[in-house]
Each structure stands twice: as C-alpha cells, then as structure tokens.
Design goal:
By secondary structure, this protein is an alpha/beta fold. It has a single domain (about 5-245), classed as Phosphoenolpyruvate-binding domains (TIM Barrel, Alpha-Beta Barrel), CATH 3.20.20. The chain is built from twelve helices and eight strands. The protein has helices at about 5-15, 30-35, 55-65, 80-90, 100-110, 135-145, 155-160, 160-165, 180-185, 195-210, 220-230, 240-260; strands spanning about 20-25, 40-45, 70-75, 95, 150-155, 175, 215, 235-240. Strands 1-2-3-4-5-6-7-8 form an eight-stranded parallel β-barrel, surrounded by nine helices. Helix 2 (about 30-35) crosses helix 3 (about 55-65). It is globular, with a radius of gyration of 22 Å. The model has no long low-confidence stretch (mean pLDDT about 95).
C-alpha cells in the first residue's frame, strides 16, 4: 500500500505557509474533518497541556490520515517514549517543547528516525502505510523522509543556541513558543516587544542559513502575526479548538445581544366566567 503523504512537509518544502489547528478539548474523529473543512494543513494534538489519553491521541491521528490533515503530536519535554509510540500509531510528526541546546535537538532527531539515520525501533505495520507496508527496509526509508520533527524554542538560552540547533540534521522546524518565551524573558504576553522581534530575527537567520523552517506559536493578534510571517515564519499555529469556539461564540452572542428587542405584547385579559 502507498504511504500517506505528509502534505504539510510538501507545502513547507515548496516555500508555502502551513497552518495548524490546535486541539485541546475535541476528542472525536470529527476534529480532523473540521480542521480540513476550515483550510488547515496540520493538526496540533497537545499532549503537553491537553488532557489526552494515548488512545484518544492516536485515534485522532488515525482519523486525520485520510483527510489530508497532517497529525502532529506535542509531547512533554523529554518524553521520547510517548513520541515514538505516537509515531507508531498514526502521528506524522512530533513537536518537542523546551529544546534549549543542539545536544537536546540531536537526541530528538535521532529518536524519531529509523537506522541508519537514527535509533527509532520498528513497531510493526504502521497506520501511515495503511497497515500494509513494503519490506521493512523500504518502509523505514520512506517513513524517515515523511516525518516532521519540530523543536520548540522557548527560552533565551534556546534563542542564543538557535544556529547550533538549526544545524542539527533531522530537525525540520524551529518553532518559537512565543508565550513561554515572553514569560522567560520577564515580558510575559508582550508579543511585539523588541526582544521578541530580535528573537524571531535571530531564529529566522539560523533557519535560512541551514535550510530549516521558522515556526510561530502563541501569536494570535493580526498585527504581530503579520510581522512575524513577514519575517519568514511559515509553520503557523493559527489557533485552537478553545480559541475558535470562544471567538465564534463571542461574535454570535455580541450580534444577538445587540439586536433591538421587539416590544413585548401585553398579556391578554382573561374572560371572566359567568
């Protein structure tokens, strides 16, 4: 059977934007269908902050595969075992938070690729081959080329080491976790602060030098998002199920509560019984 294509990786290779749908609360197979229907390229299944079980995470991944939405799972920092299990069960990429050094990035890249490129072990017929892979050697080589490996830079140390992290073979995206980065810099929530602008410039330069992709997370207002996309960010987390529901609900409630109420009809008098 043919390997499921990582459409997000293709878009990034072509220099296009790849837009992500964050999932914290949705648990059903409808989530990737909704992501696809609304024009998203990838789904960000948050195993770091979301309360997902392994079963829920992997079922979302499997449901995403036939919908053309790339299932990506964020694991907790250092949770390599959780990441490889997600890859064995439908994920087409892993997001690892709090990567501060090239050594940490190298460990991540090695863990997610099969030999000779890495140390990942074979877990049997995978969903991304629709459970009917070719020979193990051929399947592993093909899967290595499809998996997206994303590291999150969320501290001043990570920004300082961006060039070394970008130089690590097997890392595809340097994804700035802007919210945590502002907090670690003592400027929490200030998405347009000069230190953040400088961080995007520094990481962007590292990505361009080493042929990697700059990613942006945590920036949702149009002014600052436009600035960082203009600076080269192409792997973009555009929002989450939580923010989308809240935003849409707020707009609808505002609309209906702003409508003038029709005058109430006076109650009809009851006829007295004779």
């Amino acid at each position: 059977m043919a390997l499921v294509t990582n459409t997000t990786k293709r878009r990034l290779a072509e220099g296009q934007l790849a837009l992500g749908f964050g999932v914290h609360h949705l648990r059903t197979a409808a989530a990737p269908m909704l992501a696809a229907a609304t024009g998203h390229d990838w789904m960000f299944i948050d195993g770091e902050h979301g309360a997902f079980s392994v079963q829920e995470m992997t079922q979302l991944c499997i449901a995403a595969l036939p919908n053309g939405v790339t299932p990506l799972v964020r694991v907790c920092a250092g949770a390599i075992d959780e990441a490889t299990r997600a890859l064995d069960n439908g994920a087409m990429g892993i997001v690892v938070p709090h990567v501060d050094t090239a050594k940490e990035a190298r460990r991540v890249a090695d863990a997610f690729r099969y030999p000779p490129d890495g140390t990942r072990s074979w877990g049997g017929p995978p969903p991304i081959f629709r459970y009917r892979p070719p020979s193990t050697e051929e399947a592993q080589r093909a899967i290595n080329a499809e998996i997206l490996t994303i590291v999150m830079l969320e501290s001043p140390e990570a920004i300082e080491n961006a060039a070394d992290i970008a130089a690590v073979d097997g890392i595809d995206v340097l994804f700035i976790g802007t919210s945590d980065l502002t907090a670690s810099m003592g400027i929490s929530g200030q998405m347009g602060h000069p230190k953040i602008v400088d961080a995007y410039q520094e990481v962007g330069n590292a990505c361009r030098k080493h042929g990697k992709v700059l990613g942006m997370g945590g920036v949702y207002d149009e002014e600052h998002a436009s600035r960082y996309v203009g600076m080269g960010a192409r792997f973009i987390l555009t929002g989450s199920d939580h923010s989308y529901v809240m935003s849409g609900a707020d707009q609808r409630i505002t609309f209906f509560t702003s409508l003038p109420a029709a005058p109430a009809e006076p109650p009809k008098a009851r006829k007295k019984k004779k």
